[in-house]
């Protein structure tokens, strides 16, 4: 079907009609680009009609029909965009920002839940960058964290990896780790604690402040200077929220109690990570990796002896067993005992390469951590 434009002048003026045709041709060109036939063809048909009327001496018609044909069969209509397309998302600077992080995590035994959460943080930061480049609100996030786990479960190592990740993704400017404990924060007189704590926060600016055994800050009661350290840290979290990340770490039960005694603290730490104890198989795997890194080899009989001792020690020291730290201490002691044995056996000669690498069962002298009544420096 066609559409017509009707002019009802009783006595049409040819100049007026010509001007109207020019206006209609502009309208046709601008508002109906997909119509079949060009502007020139429409004008030509209209001019021919006028000319024929003039030649015949008849009065020009009072009605001018402009016929706009429908699209030919099979022709696709021109698409009409509802809005302008979003600008292309600019990529991050060259390089895989997670590749180095992935390599460091891969060599760590266990900790599957921890590794998954670290990747979640990376994914959130990556998508936030994409949203920002697309003109969307990426939001402001808080990255202060709680690490809950027994000694030797990888908390400090993961803290270093987190610092590196946040630096690579542009959250932190430096990505260094400052590790402190109660003695580093608490002073000896009124006002000293706040100053010491502020100095450490400034030192951690652009990186991560890692407070180990953080619950010890609340053990002294209301008059203890530890409370002043907590208050100073909380204020720094508000005043310097984008300049550093605070990680509080410690035993699960003690950390939970610590958070309960300070109702305003849990909401300030949106990321809380549980570090489970290692299984016996995982501890053996860690021991073999530690020995390999030092160019030593645990003999099969040595591995069997270590496994039996670890089973017994975990049962006797359920709440104080220091996991990978305990294993590391065992390896280092075994290396010292091996050195003494080799000097004794080869007083007049040099042992071969394989003998220099072998850790034998007699080199592994097991002493129960619980029976010794002390941690023997294996906590952390």
From TrEMBL:
UniProt domain AAA+ ATPase: residue ranges: 141-279
Database matches in Pfam families: AAA, AAA_lid_6
Gene3D superfamilies recorded: 1.10.8.60, P-loop containing nucleotide triphosphate hydrolases
Keyword Nucleotide-binding set for record: yes
InterPro entries from the UniProt entry: AAA+_ATPase (IPR003593), AAA_lid_6 (IPR041627), ATPase_AAA_core (IPR003959), CbxX/CfxQ (IPR000641), CbxX/CfxQ_RuBisCO_ESX (IPR050773), P-loop_NTPase (IPR027417)
GO MF: ATP binding; ATP hydrolysis activity
CDD domains, alphabetized: AAA
Key words of the record: ATP-binding, Nucleotide-binding
Family: Belongs to the CbxX/CfxQ family.
Entry protein name: Stage V sporulation protein K
Originating species: Paenibacillus cellulosilyticus
């Amino acid at each position: 079907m066609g559409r017509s434009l009707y002019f009802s002048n009783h006595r049409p003026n040819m100049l007026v009609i010509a001007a109207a045709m020019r206006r209609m041709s502009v309208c046709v060109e601008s508002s109906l680009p997909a119509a079949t036939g060009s502007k020139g063809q429409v004008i030509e048909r209209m001019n021919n009609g006028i000319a024929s009327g003039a030649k015949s001496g008849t009065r020009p018609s009072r009605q001018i029909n402009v016929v706009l044909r429908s699209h030919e069969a099979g022709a696709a209509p021109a698409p009409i965009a509802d809005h302008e397309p979003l600008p292309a998302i600019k990529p991050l600077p060259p390089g895989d920002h997670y590749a180095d992080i992935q390599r460091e995590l891969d060599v760590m035994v266990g900790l599957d839940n921890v590794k998954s959460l670290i990747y979640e943080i990376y994914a959130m930061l990556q998508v936030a960058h994409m949203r920002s480049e697309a003109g969307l609100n990426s939001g402001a996030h808080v990255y202060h964290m709680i690490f809950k786990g027994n000694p030797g479960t990888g908390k400090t190592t993961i803290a270093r990896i987190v610092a590196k990740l946040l630096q690579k993704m542009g959250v932190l400017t430096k990505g260094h780790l400052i590790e402190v404990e109660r003695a580093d924060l608490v002073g000896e007189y009124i006002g000293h604690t706040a100053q010491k704590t502020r100095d450490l926060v400034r030192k951690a600016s652009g990186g991560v402040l890692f407070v180990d055994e953080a619950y010890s800050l609340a053990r002294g009661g209301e008059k203890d200077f530890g409370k002043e350290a907590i208050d100073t840290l909380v204020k720094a979290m508000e005043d310097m929220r984008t300049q550093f990340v605070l990680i509080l770490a410690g035993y699960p039960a003690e950390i939970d109690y610590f958070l309960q005694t300070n109702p305003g603290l849990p909401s300030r730490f949106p990321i809380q990570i549980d570090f489970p104890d290692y299984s016996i198989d995982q501890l053996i795997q860690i021991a073999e990796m530690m020995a390999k890194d030092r160019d030593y080899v645990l003999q099969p009989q040595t591995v069997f002896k270590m496994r039996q001792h670890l089973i017994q020690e975990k049962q006797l020291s359920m709440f104080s067993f220091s996991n990978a730290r305990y294993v590391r201490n065992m390896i280092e002691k075994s290396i010292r005992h091996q050195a003494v044995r080799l000097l004794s056996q080869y007083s007049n000669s040099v042992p071969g390469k394989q003998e220099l690498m072998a850790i034998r069962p007699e080199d592994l002298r097991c002493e129960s951590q619980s029976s010794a009544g002390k941690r023997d420096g294996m906590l952390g």
